[in-house]
Design goal:
The chain has 182 residues and is mainly β. 12% of the residues lie in helices and 54% in strands. Strands 2-3-6-7-5-4 form a 6-stranded antiparallel beta barrel.
Length: 182
């Protein structure tokens, strides 16, 4: 009987020690834990079409699109956009090595070797950063810009333009100009 009570007391002691060690784990506050900040969704070979009255207006393509918790989209390997006129003809293109989308504002950012081509006017805009406001159909930057036309090369710092580059305004203009007197 004594031996049996000894075993029971020993077993009770061991079980108490095991359970007390298990209860010593730190309970951590979830608000103080390091949160995952990476993408919640990642898509490959993305094509997004924007239309108006069943007419294609904009086609956006990207090798990778990542979406984050707040709805922000990122194109870490760049993106390419085609703008179409009301007749469905390709009017201009936009390309950047990196892109970011803020869907609540309909605002896109293009960075790194950004090039906009106006195919109708045969003009090319080059810069390192450009913002595209899709809802206003405008592009703008405060960075250095270079516009190459069939007749001249314009450079400056800062630009505001229609998204198709049909009309633009350079803020601090430098470069070579040709003036036609009529």
């Amino acid at each position: 009987m004594r031996m049996r009570n000894g075993w029971i007391a020993g077993l009770t002691l061991v079980l108490t020690a095991v359970f007390s060690l298990g209860c010593e784990r730190d309970i951590k506050n979830p608000d103080e834990e390091e949160r995952y900040t990476g993408p919640t969704i990642e898509n490959h070979d993305v094509t997004t079409l924007y239309s108006d009255s069943a007419r294609l207006m904009i086609k956006l393509q990207a090798p990778v699109q990542q979406e984050f918790e707040g709805g922000e989209g990122v194109f870490p390997k760049g993106f390419y956009v085609e703008f179409y006129d009301d007749n469905g003809k390709l009017e201009s293109t936009l390309r950047g090595n990196y892109g970011k989308q803020e869907p609540n504002k309909n605002m896109y950012t293009a960075r790194g070797n950004v090039v906009v081509n106006n195919l109708k006017k045969q003009e090319k805009l080059e810069t390192e950063e450009l913002f595209w406001d899709r809802s206003k159909a405008k592009i703008f930057t405060d960075k250095f810009v270079r516009i190459t036309t069939p007749e001249e090369v314009l450079t400056g710092t800062g630009l505001t333009a229609n998204q198709d580059m049909s009309r633009y305004s350079i803020k601090k203009v430098t470069g070579k100009f040709n003036f036609n007197e009529q």
